[in-house]
Sequence to fold (1028 residues):
Amino acid sequence: MNGAESLVETLVRAGVEVCFMNPGTSEIHFVETLDRVRGMRGVPVLFEGVASGAADGYARMAEKPACALFHLGPGCANALANLHNACRARVPLVNIVGDHATYHRRYDPPLNADIEMLTRQYSKWLRTSPSSAAVGRDAAEAVASARTAPAGIATLILPSDTAWGEDGSPGEVGPIPPPPRADTRAIEQAVAMLRNGRPTAIILGPPLTQSETTLKVAGRIAAATGAKLLAPFSVTRARRGAGLPAVERVPYIVDQALPMLARFSQFVLLGAAVPAAFFAWRGKPSVLVPEGAAIHILASADQDMDGALSDLETALGAGRFEPILQPAAQPVRPSGLITIEGLAATIAAMLPQEAIVVDESITSGRGFMAATKGCPPHDWLVNTGGSIGIGMPLSIGAAVACPDRAVVCLQADGSGMYTLQALWTAARENLAITILIFANRAYQILKSELAALGGNPGPRALDMLEIGRPDLDWCALARAMGVPARRVETLEALARAMQDGVASHAPNLIEVPL
Amino acid sequence: MNGAESLVETLVRAGVEVCFMNPGTSEIHFVETLDRVRGMRGVPVLFEGVASGAADGYARMAEKPACALFHLGPGCANALANLHNACRARVPLVNIVGDHATYHRRYDPPLNADIEMLTRQYSKWLRTSPSSAAVGRDAAEAVASARTAPAGIATLILPSDTAWGEDGSPGEVGPIPPPPRADTRAIEQAVAMLRNGRPTAIILGPPLTQSETTLKVAGRIAAATGAKLLAPFSVTRARRGAGLPAVERVPYIVDQALPMLARFSQFVLLGAAVPAAFFAWRGKPSVLVPEGAAIHILASADQDMDGALSDLETALGAGRFEPILQPAAQPVRPSGLITIEGLAATIAAMLPQEAIVVDESITSGRGFMAATKGCPPHDWLVNTGGSIGIGMPLSIGAAVACPDRAVVCLQADGSGMYTLQALWTAARENLAITILIFANRAYQILKSELAALGGNPGPRALDMLEIGRPDLDWCALARAMGVPARRVETLEALARAMQDGVASHAPNLIEVPL
Fold:
């Protein structure tokens, strides 16, 4: 078999079954293989950032890697912004980049680039296959590395002659090694902290907030000790809703995060960093926890964090406690003109059972988490790395991973324009995604920043932050790419559109002017 | 003044007057400055790849740098694909990237990235300013470096505290040092080659093909010696048309390039590499010149290439020769259904005087150069690095640089989708760009590659290369972003649409189904 066949065969055997791709000439052998090696679903995209974001969304929901296929350095460069987010999300992802043939690079043809330099900072594993004979083994190592805790991005660069060379053979992916257990003393110290009577927060990093079992262990510890459960603002996937222990995200706004965290003098961290501000704002602190607070790392991301929580539960005798569970509470549908508050209440009222919510709502969505906390159980995915344009791509990946669930994508207009090509893939694959576009026609968050500088912002500065003039017609954009769309002017119309959209089990877009 | 003011003041004094931008929180001080330091035009974009491509197009036509402003590592990552093209085009460009405050990076907030690692391979000059006091000096050095031959990308990374710090002062850009003259022996050797009677090609790298003066010197040398003038396939800007010496591009297709170059046994290079294949194709050579051909570097890109051509002209006594000039020949408007040949003839028939043609037509446009060679004088810009999605961004930059000329953008549909957000900026700035979208609804070039592999391509493979199903409605996409559009079904309709579009002096799009 050739190298490309050995690649696909290895990936399929290792359980990698979906490839989000935008191939080029140097990847044509990989594409050609799709008809001969069965088991790999190719999902085409019109821009690489859609593929990397979709592979992230797939991994968040499937809890295993997809692969993404890119065309040389520039193709991979287009994927980097969402690879940045995926890296921060700590999801497994196999990133395959075609390159010039090994013997051709010396001529420095136009598309030549140092792909390793482009991808190194986002890759926990990185290799350029030297020959077709090595591709199967390298692909197996890539999958194993991506899946070993902490999960991450494995980048495999395949010169085109490694794809067409005929001496390929599939690699074998062995069992993924379990992460090492946390130190016994780390457990003991956590027990001591949680019994010393001082107010304590436990911060749960990814992937802890995605499992009901884990959340209930954490919830029993919280019930036994009075500790509060927190998650970073940039949470990869939060399982939440009625009947589940509540975990609160640290707010983005420094002036909200500071008082929230000021209530605690101790922080127990599981795979999470000490909360810091998203940006440096002049005159505001970088670190959000109170000065002198005790910080204790119970387990780091490369350790057995679930095991550490279980050990802690046992050591505290917390198993006999009942976790405090979020009571069911879904608002009644509000009516009238669209307001930020009404928007949150409507979304909460209409959120279907087992929804996968993808939230890139930026300023429009600051009330969404609070409004939906008592909704039927659902998963909430957010932008983990601050690189905007992840919402619709993430939704595509989530919908491919969970075809029986409804994806609700809460999308700011400015961020949505970054990767609007995602709409075409949603239509092509007929994915059950209901996209709400919050059309405030500005980079609203930046207008707030500009105002915060004081003085009167000038017209030329403000002009750079307006994305109206001309207004974007999101309904027309969606329809032009095959996605039905409607614009709503009232909360009642929004509720109806959400209901219809979810019921359609197909992609649909709702433009919500603000 | 603060660092941001010192930055803008320095840039404006150095003749950098346009900034294509997509700013974020860390760049807000730069934006705020636009109202206080006069002379900088901010052009907003909805995706960073539009800004980098536009800065490239501006530089190609204005022959001086614009700046581009990006938001941290991920914002810059989105710009990289077109920075790759700009790097290959050897255009001057000042790439400004905001970063976290110097004291904030240690907390590794979500948007943290190694921006230097992302940009190093594309930057001839790269620096992170350490303080607001240094910003003015660093900006001056960036402009000087970008403009020093060979022109290139200067990347200046500005931590946000260097923007708001109050001890800024403008830097001074001194005269740009002239490039060193080529070695006298290199001139002598070229003279000897051009007089030895063997068939010789002179290959002109950027920026030689953009100046009529330079072309005429080269044309006189060709007339005196019988040498043929060539340019690389990936030409930055070709000045061409009736009354100008003709320079032929080396074809993309290896089977066309080989016989063309087989006619020569000697190659004289000015800032150009030995022609090599765009990709490695199995069984085809990487190097396109005949084995054993004599290669002579008359001048490299960092030397005075114009001076070397002049010296060569003098040494050959070629000044008294008349260059062979392209005769005027514009086809009459063809009629009937749209064919590839009819398309080329129609575009040639309708090309306005002094058009700036931006050609990212890929497979649809292989006959365009031949059809337009006798058109009224115009400039022809192509994708220089193979990273697709440059056409509309390049057109925006060219139109900003030359508001009195008509830009005609020949755009393949697949490539166009990469950076379709450019349409909004074209509308916002009311730029005189007529965009022809060649809608073959496939990555046609890849379908040819797949077919060339032999056997019968399978349906799953072919499916990855079709970008119909659903078809993209380009007219609706354009209108949704404020650009008037029409679809044409005949060559007559295309001719009328081009005439109307150019006459409108405003952005307009013509969808050409193929």
In short: Chain A touches chain B through 99 residues (CB under 8 Å). Residues 3-164 of chain A form a domain with the Rossmann fold fold (CATH 3.40.50.970). Chain A is about 40% helix and 15% strand. Chain A has three domains: 3-164, 184-320, 340-513.
